[in-house]
């Protein structure tokens, strides 16, 4: 009759690392999601683009490192894929917002010049063009916001 107790199985040094890694990645993705929301509320296109790129890079590294079966593969669009679509759409819209803001900066310069010269007609024309550009910028931010809230 054996008198020794059965030895406990030795756990590998990697035991629990994958779970811990998944938890850390999930927390980072949530933090990035919160930062994306904050940038949207503040209408800060530079921070929004920075956080979108960080989210996409983290997702890409996670999906590459976890193997082919880690992400659900179905014919329907998954949450991750819908976020990727949102990121792509938002990047496209953000480039247009940046272009509109550069246009607004040029228009502000023209407005100042027209005011200093006393050119009422040039001032009114620049103001009208600036208002159109501003309205376009507001509409682009609304598109990003609607796209962000519809993906949830």
Task: Describe the protein's architecture and organization.
- By secondary structure, this protein is an all-alpha fold.
- The protein has one domain (17-150).
- The protein is built from 4 helices and no strands.
- The chain has helices at residues 17-42, 45-66, 79-117, 120-150.
- Helix 1 (17-42) runs antiparallel to helix 2.
- The radius of gyration is 26 Å and the shape is rod-shaped.
List keywords for this structure.
single chain; 152 residues; mainly alpha; 78% helix
Question: Which geometry do the CA atoms define?
Answer: rod-shaped
Biggest beta sheet attributes: none
Structural class by secondary-structure content: mainly alpha
DSSP helix fraction: over 70%
**Unreliable segments of 5+ consecutive residues:** 68-77
What is the terminal-to-terminal distance? 63 Å
Number of strands: 0
The succession of helices and strands, N to C, reads HHHH
- Report the sheet-strand fraction: under 5%
Average pLDDT over all residues: 83
Instruction: Tell me the number of helical segments per DSSP (H or I, 4 or more residues long).
Output: 4
Q: Determine Rg (CA atoms, Å).
A: 26 Å
Any idea how many domains? 1
Summarize this entry quickly.
By secondary structure, the protein is mainly alpha-helical. It has helices at residues 17-42, 45-66, 79-117, 120-150.
Secondary structure topology:
Elements: H1 17-42, H2 45-66, H3 79-117, H4 120-150
Helix pairs in contact: 1-2, 2-3, 3-4
